[in-house]
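Why should sequence recovery work at all? Because a backbone constrains its sequence more than one might expect. Tight turns favour small or flexible residues, buried strands favour hydrophobic ones, and helices have their own preferences. The token representation captures these environments compactly. In the example below, the structure is given first.
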């Protein structure tokens, strides 16, 4: 450590030469990319846009000439009129299948592998991504570690879905050196501990106290459940990192007040990779503009101004095997103004979630439900909840509770739910033994089941 800034020391490939490290192979590429990321983040927003346009033009030309789907749909389209290109909807990606794959993927981009999305919306998709995408992702992950000043000699504990990782599905979990593929490139790496999400909350809390990690990685919904279960801080905890779900201001406040540490979030998707990471000095997010071109669009297709919420449309800049030009991932986000940290990277103030997480009002209008304020714990012994919109007038509140509610508790809970939803809907409370997660481990506390008009 130098002062309070962790040292990122690459592993040297030259015997006997430890420092400065001499790198080769993938490590040399990753650290060369990281050096460029460190420089690019301080460029002006205008300069970053110019660089993105150059890369978009190269990707566009490749897609138009080597991808059957784009040969059929782009016709006379030009890269310099990007906003006129058709948006690629999730259903388009499903229908196109192999027609979205290039028949002339540059060999230098490496071998490709099939990536399947979690399908949390009920519409799973598949893409093939090149090895270079993974290399860039490692550089971006090292940037994220660096932004949040993680000490690579310490322990990281993760509680997430751990399919196929024998030992993580039960106590005492699984332990290993390093935090992942990106830290394997470092000369100094700490240890990691992994526990499957299916382990009961009480055992998760006890496991964390025993592991005493500097950093906890988990899903926002699991962090909320742990806090509700009474998770107590332990010596040496630096911060909690979340990913995979939406984070609201109330969860950030609860994490800070109960654990005494900040919550650091990341916005990513399996078919895209890293989209945006939290600013080192604010709760908002910086788009990883060197790897993805992000648009946030109003209903009329125009770009949102700062403070406006629109749907997220993404173009991975370097995916030449399955180019995704203007891919509507299904999320909504709020655009932010330039950040006073000095970075020129675009800002997303909030990630709002998917359209199926929006309320449909009786008049056909849409709005986002207010985030939970934690008061439900003062009303009744509720361990977990999920609000499901069944019709424009009726909601079902699915409740995991220790016992049946009293009349007064149910009345108070319904009033709280209506306040959260912002409308006097009919609320039917239903006690359930559990609320299932998606196969990916993701969880939604609000879902609209009404089919779009």
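From this structural description, the recovered sequence reads:
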């Amino acid at each position: 450590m130098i002062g309070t800034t962790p040292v990122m020391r690459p592993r040297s490939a030259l015997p006997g030469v430890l420092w400065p490290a001499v790198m080769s192979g993938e490590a040399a590429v990753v650290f060369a990319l990281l050096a460029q990321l460190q420089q690019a983040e301080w460029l002006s927003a205008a300069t970053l846009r110019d660089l993105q346009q150059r890369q978009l033009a190269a990707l566009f030309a490749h897609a138009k000439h080597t991808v059957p789907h784009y040969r059929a749909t782009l016709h006379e389209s030009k890269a310099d009129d990007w906003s006129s290109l058709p948006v690629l909807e999730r259903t388009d990606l499903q229908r196109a299948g192999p027609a979205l794959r290039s028949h002339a993927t540059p060999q230098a981009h490496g071998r490709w592998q099939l990536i399947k999305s979690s399908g949390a919306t009920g519409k799973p998709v598949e893409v093939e991504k090149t090895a270079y995408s993974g290399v860039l992702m490692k550089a971006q992950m090292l940037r994220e570690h660096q932004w949040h000043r993680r000490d690579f000699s310490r322990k990281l504990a993760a509680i997430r879905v751990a399919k196929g990782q024998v030992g993580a599905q039960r106590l005492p979990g699984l332990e290993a050196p390093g935090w992942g593929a990106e830290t394997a490139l470092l000369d100094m790496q700490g240890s990691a501990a992994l526990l499957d999400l299916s382990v009961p909350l009480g055992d998760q809390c006890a496991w964390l106290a025993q592991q005493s990690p500097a950093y906890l990685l988990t899903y926002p919904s699991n962090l909320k459940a742990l806090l509700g279960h009474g998770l107590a801080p332990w010596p040496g905890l630096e911060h909690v990192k979340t990913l995979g779900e939406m984070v609201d201001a109330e969860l950030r406040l609860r994490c800070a007040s109960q654990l005494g540490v900040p919550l650091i979030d990341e916005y990513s998707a399996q078919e895209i990779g890293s989209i945006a990471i939290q600013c080192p000095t604010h709760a908002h997010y910086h788009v990883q503009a060197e790897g993805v071109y992000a648009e946030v669009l109003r209903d009329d297709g125009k770009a949102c101004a700062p403070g406006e919420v629109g749907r997220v449309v993404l173009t991975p800049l370097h995916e030449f095997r399955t180019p995704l030009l203007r891919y509507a991932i299904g999320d909504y986000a709020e655009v932010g103004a330039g950040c006073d940290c000095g970075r020129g990277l675009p800002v997303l103030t909030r990630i709002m979630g998917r359209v199926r997480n929006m309320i449909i009002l009786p008049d056909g209008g849409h709005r986002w439900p207010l985030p939970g304020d934690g008061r439900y714990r003062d009303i009744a012994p509720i361990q977990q909840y999920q609000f499901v919109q069944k019709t424009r007038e009726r909601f079902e509140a699915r409740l995991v509770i220790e016992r049946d509610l009293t009349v007064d508790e149910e009345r108070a809970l319904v009033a709280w739910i209506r306040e959260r939803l912002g409308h006097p809907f009919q609320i039917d409370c239903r006690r359930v033994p559990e609320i299932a997660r998606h196969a990916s481990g993701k969880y939604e506390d609000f879902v609209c089941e009404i089919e779009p008009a």
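A few observations help interpret the result. The domain at 359-448 is CATH 3.30.300 (GMP Synthetase; Chain A, domain 3).
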